[in-house]
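Case study 2.
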Amino acid sequence: MPSDDLPVPVFSKPVTLRDVAAQAGVSVATASKALNGQGRMTAETRERIRETARRLGFRPNSLAQSLLRRRSFTVGLLTNDTYGRFSLPLMSGISDALVDNGVSVFLCNVEEDPRLGQMHVDAMLDKRVDGIIATGKRIDRHLPVDLSNLRVPVIYAFTQPDPDAVAFVSDDVGGARLAVEHFCRLGRKRIAHVTGPASFAVVHARVQAYRDVLVENGLTVSEPLLGSWSEAWGHQAVAQLFDGKSERPDAVFCGNDQIARSASMTPRAIWSLPQK
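Prediction:
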């Protein structure tokens, strides 16, 4: 039986299961069962084999294991969010949720290129991912790649899903209502709304919620100011609201963080929602 005091052999090639078995003084089958938590053997033998594998730096063949288990313990994340404003926090959350189960996540940016998107999907399928998560930079646009009828599950998060697919999207109506209702509880009477482009579905959803809450509370509904998702627009809109030509608002409900940052330079209560 080999001694733990023996020097660790130097292998010119990756350490194999056969190398571990030889160093531990057991058969290849016994070494395999010990490392996979299977088979009948003493606890001392199992631990000796595992310690030998650690000492030699043995790494199981992930491809062979995935074929055996029919799982790769990897999930692909597809996005067209080039700047990562939404996809990176989402990936962080997904990784935190999956890491304890030994599942890795890798990110692929498809931009707005259908060919690039299909290339990444094909690569994910070739690597036998256990599933694909599709995410984007707005919930009213589909990623530029067909994810229907794949042989792996697909989940959508903050992007337009396929019909009947599992999807996680923000409650923009509910969020906008909470924001405006907050101002109402503070006793604000003249609540303005500065938001992004009319081409975004979330803009219309939030505007409608804004109007509904004001009507429910018997307050005057001001016409929302629509512009861009930018600090520059926030500065311009605030200047327009406080130009002295009309009654000034006592609160400003902002459509995203950039607008809120510029609007917050005025001494008024600010509540913002993220752009979607």
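Confidence is low (pLDDT under 50) at residues 268-272.
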